[in-house]
Design a protein that fits this description.
Elements (H helix, E strand, L loop, with lengths): L12 E3 L5 E3 L7 E6 L6 H12 L1 H6 L2 E7 L3 H11 L4 E4 L4 H6 L2 E6 L2 E6 L2 E5 L5 E5 L7 H6 L2
Parallel strand pairs: 3-4, 4-5
Antiparallel strand pairs: 1-2, 3-8, 6-7, 8-9
Length: about 150
């Protein structure tokens, strides 16, 4: 299923880094930055997370909640948050349920080898649960600007 700008963002329930269940519907009335990334503690994902961390106050001032999603475990997320001092929740989508809903579990190719992995994508969801923007070509060093300048 290909999600589009203007369509309703699929609701989900998955645990955060502390094992607490998080639902998208918990954030009704708030804007959400739902960003999918391949793996904790890898170079590109760290740069992206730190860019969001460094601009977190500005994102919050503009009314955004930030949720990161990868298929890493809660424990891996805890280490990543601790090491990088991340102020937002990371969701442990181990079974790829959220990835499947948002179409971010895709076939990738590296050095001619094909494999399945997470597409680095961000969904901006408005206060009413509608997709306001989809960022498919994420610039890890400048991701906040992409979000705020839509």
């Amino acid at each position: 299923m290909q999600l589009q700008i203007g369509s309703k963002a699929p609701d989900f329930e998955v645990n955060d880094q502390d094992g607490n269940p998080v639902k998208l519907s918990d954030f009704k009335g708030k804007k959400v930055v739902l960003y999918f990334y391949p793996k904790d503690n890898t170079p590109g994902c760290t740069i992206e997370a730190c860019n969001l961390r460094d601009n977190y106050n500005e994102l919050r001032k503009r009314g955004y909640e930030v949720l990161g999603v990868s298929k890493d475990s809660e424990k891996s997320h805890q280490k990543f948050i601790g090491k990088q001092n991340l102020p937002f929740k990371l969701l442990a989508d181990i079974e790829k349920k959220v990835h499947d809903l948002y179409g971010t579990w895709v076939e990738k190719s590296m050095y001619g080898r094909k494999y399945m992995g997470t597409a680095r994508m961000t969904f901006i969801i408005d206060e009413n649960g509608k997709i306001e923007n989809i960022i498919e070509k994420v610039k890890t060093k400048d991701h906040t600007a992409q979000i705020l300048n839509g």
